[in-house]
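Quick log. Single chain, no ligands specified.
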Amino acid sequence: MNNIFKRLTIVLSLLLPISVASASDAADSRMASSTATAPTIGWDSLSPQQQKVLQRFKAQWQQMPGQRQQRLSKGAERWSNMPQEQRQKARQRFQRWQKMSPEKRQKLRKRFMQFQKMSEKQRTALRKKHAWFKNLPPEKRQALRQRWQKLSPEKRQAVRQRLQNLPPAQRQRLRQRILQNRINEGTVR
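-> predicted structure:
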């Protein structure tokens, strides 16, 4: 039981939701707070693919701030260059985003900004932990989530803080102990 708790705290303290939609909204927030004005983009200067993607904005395009035009233009270009499978995943993420409460969206924006402030090494470690978590059997993931959710917010914060303050050597020993426990339990693939 203690072993699961240790794994849970490590994984959950490192996992940050990443969402294309939250990235887009975070970009909106940064642009809105910027005092500099970006040059506008004429509708006719957009590529045919961009115009197709942005068709629903055509009527109001000329009245949009330049920053928004540029963001939409870049997004349309990225969309046009995406493989079909990636587009489908993006649509699904956007639909999930649309169904979220404003509070949940704000929480995700905050986590995305935290992720953006991480070093590349920290992001890589986080991605590895995320992959590890996703590769757990669904029942183990659920058990870890439930255990974490049962903790009070204060306990969760204390666990996060304790893990963040561990010296690298101690953190490495903890990782090795967790790995050894996983091996003993037969959960390592």
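The radius of gyration is 21 Å.
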